[in-house]
Amino acid sequence: MKQTTRLAAVGCGTIGRRRCEALPPGTELVACFDTDASKAEAFAKDFGCQSFTSLEALIASSGCDAVFVATINSALAPTVKACLAASLHVLVEKPGACSFDELSNVTVPDGMILKLGFNHRFHPAFQKLHAELTKQGEDPILHMRARYGNGARVGFDREWRAKVELSGGGELLDQGVHVLDLASVLLPGLEVSSSISDTIFWDMEVDDNTWALLTTPERQVFSLHVSSTEWKNEFSFEVYTRKRKYVWSGLGRSYGVETLTIYTMKPEMGPPDVEKFEFNGPDTSWLLENENFVQAIRKDASVFGGYEDARRVLKLVGEIYRYSENSRRKHSASAAHPKWTR
User: Fold this and answer.
1) What are 159-188's pLDDT values in tens digits?
2) CA distance 151 to 17
3) Are 1 and 23 in contact (CB under 8 A)?
4) Which of helix, strand or coil describes residue 177?
5) What are the phi and psi torsion angles at 309 (to 5°)?
6) Is the pTM of this model over 0.90?
């Protein structure tokens, strides 16, 4: 019989709550901390755990084995460092740090687990897509494209995500890391070919729209557009092979019903055969990701979405920002945004 894994939450906001609402069997939430003491106290009451007034106190006295870290971006890496140094396993929400360099300064001791919150990997449509592509191994990927956008909300440009010193970047570092991670799972070796990252609507110092084109050494292409001027929330991830087209659309809730549609070309071409899979149930991605984290701690599974995956994505983010900035300077020196040259 396996021992119960004792978990703590650092960061008691919306994402911290969502993470802790999906605890797998064999785990117990024993502690929480937030810089907003009232938020931590409410969280502790709702989840039946102990609240602490500092990270140091939680580490010293909670008796936990592992920690969920769901803070603002600027606090992610320092919190992870402190937890790992205390021999606590960590699942940290994306992007894991404000930049590639900041995350690269985090050292993961031997035997410790550092998992990144890439829950989109655990959506049923992606798992089905990944399985189908693996099964059809003789049918290589030609190109892919993704669109991920939200309509934000009143006051969005005054929130912490809009401040570069707290967020590290804008829409690319927020929603963009998810699609970059998914693309990197399917097409390892992606490199940035071109990009435009700009602030076209919101009154803030980080990007509200980013477009990028990435390629592999085999000249496979991935294009993305992430946006906080979508007005109607949307998610679309498309994969094109020599014989098929795969369309993953929706994430549930405001993004619409999650579906995977597979179009298969006929030998005579013309209209393709169509298979559509709908995933109408509750969002299980958080639970499945939490299970993977706990299984990795118990050495029953490998981490799916870890430290090196996050470094790879953050390196691409930095390259996209730098390419856009260099292009901007080349065409108009007055339009430079030095805040993005991290």
Assistant:
1) 999 999 999 999 999 999 999 999 999 999
2) 23
3) no
4) helix
5) -65, -40
6) yes
